[in-house]
Protein 1
Amino acid sequence: MSDTKERIREFLSQHIRDNGYRDDDDLFAKGYVNSLFAMELVLFVEKEFALTVENADLDPDNFRSVDAIAGLIGRKTTPETVE
Amino acid sequence: MATGTGTIKCVVWDLDNTLWSGTLLEDSEVTLKPEAVKVIRTLDERGILHSIASRNDPETAQQKLIDLGLHEYFLYPQITWSDKAESVRAIARAINIGLDSIAFVDDEPFERDAVQFACPEVTCINAADLANMSEMPIMQPRFVTEDSRLRRRMYQNDMTRNQAEAKYMGPQEAFLESLGMRLTLFAAGEDDLQRAEELTVRTHQLNATGVTYSYDELDWFRRSDRYDLLMARLEDRYGSYGHIGLTLVERQEDLWIIRLLLMSCRVMSRGVGTAMLLHLMRRAENQNVRLQAHFVPNDRNRMMNITYRFAGFREVESSGELVTLEHNLAEIPALPNYMKLIVV
């Protein structure tokens, strides 16, 4: 999981100036999101972690922090188990 | 005025024996073909762009174009020793248009065939047919607007910006802040309708419903009390991007529906779509009405889907291809701090 977050932070560093954010900070609250950034973020998650972001996953809550993105990736890549 | 249904947005030129007579590396005194220059000037005035795919020495050829006073006409010229199909693709990527809106002019059948084989969507034209090239239906845009006439200059501004962005070592956000962008939203007047129609026809990737409207339909919406037709124009320190966004909102008593949201591909990295949505959210909240949007997914407009969803719109209904999204207006995101929004 920490490797996942490291890869996410690496991607974000190309887009976000302020790198003093915490893993649970809301990145969108600061107005970072534009269409291309959003698209690149979705494509990054799909390509880097070999998964498909479905319409149902396209919820800002799944992308608004490093923790949230890592959580989405975790749910999408863990084989479904009966809890 | 309305003239044609032309689909070509950019003409890619060979140089030797196409733009000029002779081979530059063998004869430095090549002579321009007057009919080629005439085509370039005529199409440029119609808002059709030009570029180059030539196998030549880059510096010699570029210098020759400067000496001939033509270099300013060509965007992203590809003067290399490599494959021309690759050059055509590079131009399409740089300008951000589809291969189906590119025409390629070359005197050599081999080069035309090679490009045609690798890029079947490209229209290949024999340099022997230059005399009537301007009259071809594919070279007749339906309207020539103020934005078409300025199109080359706006793309040149883009080239300068793109170079500045490529050189910029910091994160993208900081670069955007350095641009000082001002987005102006205004109700489309009669004078704006040709550009509005041009936008709906030219924009495929960034059209949320894929629907295109004619001049007459847009004029009807503009006059109707039930609809708002808003245009967006964008400027920054490099100059104007022109009129780059359009949205159509149907106003019912307690519900507004965004029927159309589109923007020029030149501004997709600029946050224009999100800013337009924020404006509509604020207004809807202010008027105490619900806000929905129509979206029709196709293989090219995923970006618009993401724009809506990241702005906080959620699917509330889906029938056939049409998806209805709604924003609950409880939490309206802030405008990015790199953009100033002006509503007139």
Protein 2
Amino acid sequence: MDYRVEVFWKAELSDGRAEQLKSQVTNLGIAHLEKVSISDLYFLRGEVGPGEVDLLCRHLLADPVVQDYTWQRLEQDPPASRPGELALEVGLRPGITDSVADSLIRGAKILGVTLHQAATARRYIFYGQLTTADLQQIAREVLCNEIIHVYSLHPLKPPFAPPAEASDVVETVALRGASDEALEHISVARLLSLNVEEMKAIRRYFAALGRDPTDVELETLAQTWSEHCSHKTFRAMITYRGPEGETEQIDGLLKSYIRAATERLARPWVLSAFVDNAGVIAFDDQYELSFKVETHNHPSALEPFGGANTGVGGVVRDIIGVSARPIANTDVLCFGPQDLPPEAVPQGVLHPRRVSAGVIAGIEDYGNKMGIPTVNGAILYHPGYTGNPLVFCGCVGLAPRGSHPREPAPGDLCVVIGGRTGRDGLHGATFSSAELYHDTGETAGSVVQIGNPIVEKAVLDVVLQARDEGLYHAITDCGAGGLASAVGEMGQKIGVEVDLSTVPLKYPGLRPWEVWLSEAQERMVLAVPPEKLDRLKEICAGRDVELTVIGHFSGDEQLRLCHGVHIVGEIAMAFLHGGAPRLHLQAEWQPPHFSEPALDSGSDLTGELKRLLAWPGIASQEAVIRRYDHEVQGGTVIKPLVGQDGAGPSDAAVLKPLETGGWRGLAVSCGINPFYGLIDPYAMAWAVVDEALRNAVAVGADPDQVALLDNFSWGNPSLPDRLGGLVRAAQGCYDAALCYGAPFISGKDSLNNEFVDAEGRKTPIPPTLLISALAIVPDIRQAVTMDFKAPGSLVYLVGETRPELGGSAYYRLHGALGNSVPRPVPRSIETMRRLHQAMQAGLLAACHDCSEGGLGVAVAEMALAGGLGVTLELRAAPRSADLDGDVSLLFSESSGRFVVEVRPEKQRAFEELMAGLPWGCLGKTTGDGFFRLWGLNGRQIVQARVEELKSAWRGS
Amino acid sequence: MANRPKVLILHARGTNRDREAAAACELAGGAPEIVHVNQLRDGTRRLADYQMLVLPGGFSYGDDLGAGKLWSVDIGHLLRDEVTAFVASGKPVLGICNGFQALVKSGWLPGPPEEGVKATLTSNASARFECRWVWLKPDGHSPCVFTRGLDELIHCPVAHGEGRFVPADADTLAWLQKKRLIAVRYVKADGSPAGYPANPNGSLADIAGICNEQGNVFGLMPHPEDHIWPHQHPRWTRGERDGLGLALFENGIKYAAEL
């Protein structure tokens, strides 16, 4: 019997959700909405009677204090549209994970009611002069994403998963007789994203075996050789041609620059770099730290909530995959302008406001539910991200040193734990390696992944216990490419045999290749010695985590895939992992030239400063930060928001994990500036490495114990100009890493970030390099925050200011880009070492890095965070000879600069310590609440109440 | 403390602040053990063997069907007999955030559960999850064993999306006030009545936590376990120190030790 239950709010109580929806609808320009109410719908199927349905409503589905309910039996009493009522019903498409429905079935069982199926949906009732067209617009633009949702203006049919038959269909794909053209056609038709050389290599391999590949084999190879999994661009041989026509052969960007820096630096505290799921460094004698940052750009473009949600889930699994407990999350987001007029949004693209709302909600949901504090991040805006937003998700882990086993042994069982396998995310790896087309949303529905953080939390709890009891020889997560990638990599050296018919499915009907490639979330693969299996099963059972043995590690160096008794695929590991032809790519770099805008030195600098403080990208992100739990786990000693009333923007987070001894802590920070990348990717790399270190050092990290992660998000690397910029950025990474002594421990590239519109025009995103830093804070009691602490302190600028406004927030505020991008400052590392010494000696009351918005914004932030005024003379600022105006001094974004607060009694000690470095004492903090700056010619150029600056920055 | 009372920290699928609750109990002189609901269900652990019960924060069962709702089915149905006996014996029970939601939705708070559900914790007035530090004013004259004798304000974070306390009716609110069951209220830093954001969720009468009439069952939305040492304070770099959440645990453990 099927029932429909509707749970609604009691009329007299306000429902926050409804208020929110009302304002979203008003934002669409639909003016006549008077009121909206929301009810939850539940569809129940089972041999249950009315009494039992009523019991479920009372104890499970409705909150009796604030809600009422009605229910009806669908066979006897089908729901009908109520005349005159404007209503929308929105549910998940059948087959899309509905975790609430699963919980409902479990809860009902405890109450003694057995349900066969359940599904959830929402009903929205609108009051006011709305048309059907309005409702459809609301449905499409606010309430649902048709990739995962269905909506109806009439009562929904129960969205139960349709019955399906098990499938063991395996196709053989005729490659041997196929022409090169036909090979390309096969690659495109099957969404393999393999180029013709790769297809030919596959044809050769199977021709030598005297047979054609199965779809399972072809998909496995496409998957393993995808950009996402094998980083073929970063491993490619590149012929680079520079601006003067000089050419150079580059034997792989990763090997020549990123890894080369790490190898040359040979830091003893780097425990694992570029080998595991995450980079690993020593924390102290007992613990190690791991760090990984991933992108989830394309999934987030299509389904922002699900894309970002599973982006977090995926990077957290990378950390679980190095046997560590996740202790912090980071997120850096790049969106299109939030105020983009609707007509400027390309066809097939979600409005940037919708993308940002969904992404932020997705991050919030996963991180908060897993109990991982989200402690660091940034949000940037540029029109270039409208069709292709960027979502960088990072995770830091903590584990006892040496507790992560890495070697599966022949005879070990191949075990999957966690979520079940469905069609979720099929072709995610190959999809993420392709460009986004305006109709991608329609064709790529199956690539969408839906997360369930609670399953992942239970998996984490199992893994940590299994680790401590030594129950596995190797572990890895199922990410892009699913089991194919996870099992294929784990068995790379020894070989593995898997029976695909044993993999537990969410619903029947998946073909063997779909089972093998599915990117269903929350799954881990372990190599378990047979004698440890019973104990692992016991732990899993105790935490309601599903465990399945799907095969064993063989020792014959073959990947063998069976479905029951049939072999459906067999590939030599040597070919799978080493058979892809190496790419040869052309790169060319011609620096662009943007004209420098004329500056009006007589302009109203107080007004300019306020406008900058209110500028998206600089303005307070408090409304977002507070939606992320940054306190859970009890270790966040320097928080994302600091200062007198918790409104100041912290440079970085400092953590002191509960389980570690002593006072040692860690700092997590980042540096990113794609606007410099538009002008000069090499300079950008230096600038963002400097920024990541600056942020970490500003809160108390030791500049000589900083590990870096690189995340490149770039356009199509087969286009020489895009690749030329990428080469320049990688060269910048190498030079900067060596100069600062900071090794890279992990990285990831996301390429083909181009949006192709309906007319075929390609737009690449701005060249974007995110540098994330993980650093040691020797003693957290000496950590420093950026808020001014007391009136009467001395305010110093450390580091030289040069006229470098190219790409600056100030120029962009005026609609320009300019060319004078901040140049490298090799001695910046020396400044950082001395400031660190000053912190250890307790000489600094506050420290803040100068970045977007320059000196003006940095000092304003310190003042508004501390609730204190300042009186400063810009004449005292250390600056280059060619800097000659107040605007440059205030808003230039030169690297290597800090603003610090020093109490008068520490003045001498501080100045002695800074000897030989560029520094200047600009003035003092004041208790009168006024922000006053005097310019180079001695006249006052800025005067404002700190409260005014604060309201500009907070938008209040 | 010579006698370290055994504290059962109950872990349901999705619980995530259990380790912090355990750390707080340990620091307060207790001997905490994190125990999965399944271990009570299958009898490998017995609630009666412990002196104190903590239901910590997190997202039990994903907060599907409402925050703490499915966990309330565990303690209100699955484990009803054990919990009933535990509460009747006068031993202290503390629910934090998600644990508080489960205690309220199963009727243990304000209790007694036989009289049904008398209140709820529903979506914040802002309709958003919010993480921020709040000030709590304990009622030293409440029967609550956890706030007994406390008069200093407690400073600690909240991190929740469904923390708005709503009593079923005006009579319930009057009864809570009369019996002094409102053990902690949100206030401003100076102790004066809170508006948003000092009251972060729109709770009626600034109610942050309540206890039962006997005073041994207590729940609150904020996280006292996240302020048990001074460097967790959001403004310690400004030299500020304020009342630790640890005080609530110390009271509970002390009471448990004396039973």
Protein 3
Amino acid sequence: MSDDTRTLVPQDLMPLWEVFIRPRTGLAHSHVGSVHASDEVMAVQAARDVYTRRGEGVSIWVVPSASITASDPDQRDENFDPSASKIYRHPSFYDIPDDVGHM
Amino acid sequence: MAGRDDPARDLARDLDGDIADDLADDLLALLLRIGDDHLILGHRLSEWCGHAPMLEEDLALPNMALDLIGTARMCYGYAAEIEGGGRSEDDYAFLRDGTDFRHMLMVERPNGDFAHTMLRQFLFAAWMHPLWDGLTGASDARLADHAGKAVKEMAYHVRHSGEWVIRLGDGTAESARRMRAALDDLGPYIGEMFESDETSARLVVAGLLPDPATVRAAFDSTVARTFTMAQLPPLEIGAGISGGRAGRHGEVLGHLLAEMQFLQRAYPGQTW
């Protein structure tokens, strides 16, 4: 039924899109995965069908995967290890007055 | 259509009087027509599960199938109550023979290729969307309540399938050829959507179906907008093939039912 169709979907016609879902109003969109689609309209539809089937979200963003610039895995040590020894950057050394309540 | 505060509302469920009995028969006929349209098309869409041309559509098609089957369940459950004969929704789906089904012929047509399936879905949704929209003000509370849910589902089906019709119709030479072939195949089955009979005429008067002219105008507008972008010729609905509402179906329905009904026929009452 569809074996012939499958060979007609080359990657350059169906590029990859990264999908971001906002789970509730007030929360930030979070990356949930990716879809293949011919353009941004189809990408939003595909994201809706793949990632919101169980009520996961109220808003969808899609971004061409090719538009994302990522950090270099080879630079991981120099990027991220230096922060490991600087625990004073965590705001956990301050006494919060009771009157302030939840922060 | 009768409004939500119309005193005629729920008349069909007041089964005491003679008039209400007549209306109950018409409502029953309507529920089987709508229910069968949705069940059979839903089953056809479910056949794509595991076979779609891309993973995204392998989820999208069963999503739409489940929307349709959900509506069929509502129709059969309600029909069973009106009939009062102790039948369940499963009995309507799995224990009726082909001649007892009242769907239009288009929904039982084999899936064909992806273009064929998407065009059929688009035409069906472009018709059902205004129909459900009208039924949100139906004189029957249960039908009106379900219409509020179904109209949103159909709006998405129109959008999803319509965007594919545009991209395939106005895509590559091969996709355009397939979309035009699908239109040639499905063309003769479109007219059955807009057929009317004494039952449907009484349902319109009773506020249980919207004005057919309103539904047709909305369908024409949706189709014209999409077909223009899809580089498809204007839709002309001529004399076609019908008979589904009277239980006259194609051989293809027998094959569909053989698969869909096998389990309940072979193992009556089986549950999971």
